[in-house]
Design goal:
single chain; 84 residues; mainly alpha; 40% helix; globular; DNA-binding
DNA sequence: CTAGGGTTATAA
DNA sequence: TTATAACCCTAG
């Protein structure tokens, strides 16, 4: 008994607050670009992230949300033009 | 549901 | 310390 091996499934101390910092995969960026390029229209000012997420829900990582897509796209587009 | 802002963590 | 990438919360 006394099997105090701890370690359940995620690192020594369980990280309850804030998810793990998982870097986006190349497939994610590709699918995101493809979805936006294939969905967004000249009539649709906004971006149907919801549709895009469902479009590649099989490839997207687990725990990804529409907020994350918008965030990545914005953070990328902001630091894309003109390398600082 | 989509858009914007603020904060945290990691790398250079 | 600064910059980059990612995550969470709030507002329209």
């Amino acid at each position: 008994m006394a099997s105090l091996t701890g370690a359940h499934t995620t690192s020594p101390a369980n990280v309850q607050l804030r998810r793990k910092k998982v870097p986006w995969t190349a497939k994610e960026e590709e699918l995101l670009k493809m979805g936006v390029r294939k969905f967004t229209s000249v009539n649709d000012r906004n971006i149907p992230w919801k549709k895009i997420l469902e479009f590649g829900s099989s490839v997207f990582l687990m725990g990804r949300t529409t907020i994350d897509l918008k965030d990545k796209w914005r953070n990328m587009c902001k630091g894309s033009p003109r390398a600082k």
